Amino acid sequence: MYKNILVPISFDDDCDAAGAQEIARVLAGKNAQITLLHVMEQIPAYAVSRMPVGYVQEARIAIDDELEKMKAGKADVSAAIIEGHSGRSILDWADKNQVDCIVIASHRPGASDLILGSTAARVVRHANCSVHVVR
Amino acid sequence: MYNHILIPVAPDHSGSAGKALEIARALLAEKGKITALTIIEDIPAYVASQIPDSQLDKTRSEIAEQLNADLGNEDGVTTRVIMGHSANTILEEATDLGADCIIISSHRPGLADYFLGSTAARVVRHAQCAVHVIR
Fold first, then answer.
1. 3-state DSSP call for residue A70?
2. Mind listing the domains of chain A with CATH numbers?
3. What is the ipTM metric for this complex?
4. Buried b (16+ CB within 10 A) or exposed e, A65-99
5. Interface membership of B109 toward A (CB under 8 Å)
6. pTM, rounded to two decimals
7. Maximum C-alpha span of chain B
């Protein structure tokens, strides 16, 4: 089926990370690799200067812990954290690492989606590989 | 996993639905159903008036036969051919059938996608259920 599956994890309450991982598992072929990827949105400079020293570093460690928990005991699952713009960075990472399927959780569309795009919408539109949107 | 998977198949492309069917089988819950759906694009009334009804019926039955020949014999697969607008009708059918996942093929995005939407893009954006886009 698929050989290299990317599961972006956002840690938002309304996103179904467990569901996405379950789907990834089913879509994974033999010897497939699954990567859990979290994108830390970049913070504007004016906001960074207001934050306590080491805050970003601590946040990163906390996220790393969560990802470690998710992949615990699964040899074919790895985790990565990158910084950047969520939609764009997911697509770049997928291209660079020859991902053949992205499994991404999305909230159900509401009126605001007609005006604003979501990360999932951007990923699905511009990815070069297959994309599974979990709702 | 999913109980009712909808596979939209473009007219005359039912032979290439193999990949979609493979993914559907992996994602389908036990005793789940698969519906293969072909939408025949509505033609404007001023054009329709120039085409004999028998011709439309013939086209419709040819497309239905082809879809049936390719996918009708698959276990647990129901085929359907209806007239309508591709993306909107897929979304309506998904709601009417109570589908919880749509598996749709898409071409790889090119420059044109920045200006024009594709059927898959519209379906993924507006569906209430999970969507798997194959590229």
1. helix
2. 2-134 (3.40.50.620)
3. 0.85
4. eebeebbeeeeebebeeeeeebbebbbebbeeeeb
5. yes
6. 0.88
7. 48
Homologous superfamily (CATH) of B2-134 is: HUPs (3.40.50.620)
DSSP B73: T
Task: Tell me if A135 and B128 make a contact (CB, 8 A cut-off).
Answer: yes
The token pair that represents A71 in the structure block: 């992949």
pLDDT band at A135 (very low <50, low <70, confident <90, very high): confident
Q: Do the Cβ atoms of A133 and B22 come within 8 Å?
A: no
- For chain A, say whether B56 makes contact (Cβ under 8 Å): no
Say whether residue A133 is in contact with chain B using an 8 A CB cutoff: yes
- Separation between Cα atoms, residue A75 and residue A88, nearest integer Å: 28
Which residues of chain A lie closer than 8 angstroms to B108, CB-CB? Answer: 128
Tell me the percentage of chain B whose pLDDT exceeds 90.
53
3-state percent helix, strand, coil for chain B, nearest multiple of 5: 45, 30, 25
Residue type for position B84: G
Question: What is the Cα–Cα distance from A105 to A112, expressed in whole angstroms?
Answer: 17
Q: How far is B3 from chain A (nearest CA, A)?
A: 14
Asked whether the beta carbons of A85 and A118 are under 8 A apart, the reply is no
